Amino acid sequence: MSPVAEGQTKGKDAKDMQEYKFTVSSSPHVRCNETIPKIMWNVVAALVPAAAFGVFYFGMNALVNIFVAIVSAVIFEYLWEKMMHKKITIQDGSAVITGLLLAMTCPPTLPWWMSIVGSFLAIVVCKQSMGGLGYNLFNPAHVGRAGLMVSWPVAMTTWTSLNGTVDAVASATPLNVLKHNGHDALLSMFGGDPMTMYQQMFIGFRNGSMGETSTVLLVLGGLYLIYKGYVNWQVPVTMIATVGILMWIVGGIPLGTGLFSGDPLFHMMAGGLVIGAFFMATDMVTAPITLKGQIIFALGCGLITVLIRLVGGYPEGVCYSILLMNALTPLIDRLVKPRVFGAVKAKGAK
Amino acid sequence: MMKSFIGGVHPDDGKIYAKDKAIETLAVPEEVVIPMSQHFGAPCTPTVKVGDHVKKGQLIGTSDAFLHADIHASTSGDVIKVAPMPHNMMVKCMSVVIKSDGLDEWADGLPEEHDWNQLNSKEIIDLIKKAGVVGCGGATFPAHVKLTPNKPVDVFIVNGAECEPYLTADYRGMLECSDRLVTGVQICMKALGVQTGYIGVEDNKPEAVKVLQEAFKGVDGVSVEALPTKYPQGAEKMLIKAVTGREVEPGGLPMNVGCVVSNVGTVLAIADAVCHGIPFIERITTVTGDCIKEPKNLLVRIGTSYQACVDYCGGFSKQPDRVISGGPMMGLAQFSLDVPIAKGASGITCLSAEKCEVGEESPCIRCGRCVVACPMGLIPSQLSIFSERSAWEKCMEYGVMNCVECGSCVYTCPAKRNIVQYIRNAKGQCKALQAAAKAKTEAQKAKAEPSLKDTIKRM
Asked: Which chain A positions have a beta carbon within 8 Å of B347's beta carbon?
């Protein structure tokens, strides 16, 4: 084992070196294979089952609205970036998510052109005017929805039951009925049996926004994102549990049944809570960056949702609760930071 | 649950290429280029001139500075050049070029056998200093300085984590030189006067754990710890945390928590230096990557060119995009193979373009993956944004100086942001700012109040 260095003459060295050119860069030289488009398209995939259920349950108008919202969101993003001479980023999937989420949180009977207005508010006003993906302070889809809500409150709260078993008559969402007509009226919507109500709500056979009704499909989509590591499970769990626990404690008060008489199961599945908790409170851009911050954020979302549902003017408050907490995100990020390695805990030192 | 630290990432460890290749000795090249700066500290000044004949192990460079490590000839021959030559870290560095006479003769009195049991702490340290041993992991801190901490220490830790992907030099060293490692550890513990020793090894090297557990069976106070495979497990502070549970405070040194950490290669060099008086003139280095025809672990003389190492391994099998001095996470990309192996050269990693695809950088989407990955508990994304905006004060407020530049944040970033590169820039700027601020306050102080001496004189 005494290899000799004779093969390596100077001349050969020089020749070899000219053959190869190396890239010089600062370390690290390897990257993981995760990309923004990959994350975004996975979120889209996680939303598709619940959206498909919406189309199946609410019919063609839901499909038209979802389609219009997505296409218009992508077109607005493209046009803005073209106008501003920015890099076109429509292929990253983020505009698709915005359009899809916007449609899924609006009533199925919404006139299609309103979806376009909502997309404009979401993409142009909320997202691009602040600098595009990564810079927006508020969840774009929810800004679009909130804008539509204040502009066309009637259209945004007209819930036509398109369920084949019921005539296509204007009726209300379960939360609406509970707020204005009480618990018995709510139960009678589902034939008077609580178990039937839970079952129907779990599967998604109820009035509501296009994509928010199917609890089971939304949870499955959410579990997929948790499995992929794009969502911290603590966020949806905290938000939904906060609503459930608080509703159990104080949910009965407006109904006159006192403390600890609320219906947590109903409230956890009603309205836009599940879609909000899994897909909007977990939006990376608009939620705090640390896990601790995210849990505080989710707790706040749950709390505000309960407040609005019980004492607010609207029957539902998920959208506003998330938008309000979005506003607090920079503050939470400033206050909640990870502990620097080796730094002594302040209280222990004193 | 195995002992570890919070954070970290799991890059492809790439050990498969060279893991099972026994250490081979590379023949002494015709010419060695020995840089005068191969250590953390003041560069050495050559003590030989062109035309001198030198022998293997002879001192050829030294310095008056406290923080330096002597440099020795790695073979016998004539000095044909003393001039700045290409260097893997500094582009160019004053170097001594020796043309081998093919005899490879030891300098007078070498090797010099010692029974380390008979030596006291000071004698051990002197031998290590004389041999010019430095940390082999890459930081190249002079070993004799590290082994004379000015604070009481009670634990000596051998860093066998080798968390840097692709590199297997330490792994082979642990497998094949476990006897010397045992001696080295005992010597270091004696020099430090400590009773407790640990060898931390990542659990992707189960054979090494087994071999070492066997080798250290009869040695009191030393335990071999299998640690979870997670980058940067081998970072000094992370290793101390994993093994002892102690945390070095921000800006602090391991000795502040009573620990001294040395790399496997360093301990082997210490064993040679103390037992045989052999200076640090050769080391184990890994030549690996997907572009190397036959990846190998080599025992090479200091001053051998990268070219010679790559040629010995059959050359390139395909066009390498990067040739990295060290591993892919913290190594330095080279633009030429015309650089010498120095004391800190743990490996030459040659990667193809698809292995080190960077991707296009886009704005941060605040996903928080870097926050989870950061072993130091920083918010890398925020630091990179502050650095982009030249908000240096903000960078300092967010603890930029604590960054160990492990690159975990960059590895994990889906937006492909060059976070650690921004942070390096910020650290440089912040250091300059701090220095300027210090100079300013001192100047003001000197101006405002006359020195005590002046006051006394006037009285």
From this structure: none
Residuewise pLDDT in 10s, chain B (459 residues): 567 888 999 999 899 999 899 999 999 999 999 999 988 889 999 999 899 999 999 999 999 888 999 999 999 999 999 999 988 888 889 999 999 998 888 988 888 888 988 899 999 999 999 999 999 887 889 999 999 998 999 999 999 999 999 999 999 999 999 999 999 999 999 999 999 999 999 999 999 999 999 999 988 899 999 999 999 999 999 999 999 999 999 888 999 999 999 999 999 999 999 999 999 999 999 999 999 999 999 999 999 999 999 999 999 998 999 999 999 999 999 988 999 999 988 999 999 998 888 888 999 999 999 999 999 999 999 999 999 999 999 999 999 999 999 999 999 999 999 999 999 999 999 999 999 999 988 888 877 766 666 666 665
Provide, as residue numbers in chain A, all residues whose Cβ is less than 8 Å from the Cβ of B332: 27
How big is chain A by its Cα radius of gyration, in Å?
Answer: 25
**pTM to 2 decimals?**
0.89
Three-state DSSP at A170 gives strand
What is A7-73 written as a DSSP string? G--HHHHHHHHHH------PSP----S--HHHHHHHHHHHHHHHHHHHHHHH-HHHHHHHHHHHHHH
| Residue B77 · residue B96 · CB < 8 Å | no
Q: What does the alpha-carbon distance between residue A102 and residue A145 come to, in Å, rounded to a whole number?
A: 6
| Alpha-carbon torsion, ordered A249, A250, A255, A259, to 10 deg | 50
From the CA of B220, how many Å to the nearest CA of chain A?
A: 30
DSSP conformation class of A344: P
**What are the residue ranges of helices labelled H in A276-317?**
291-311
A143-to-A104, A305, A329, B457 alpha-carbon distances in Å: 14, 16, 16, 74
Using a CB-CB distance cutoff of 8 angstroms, which residues of chain B are in contact with residue A296? none
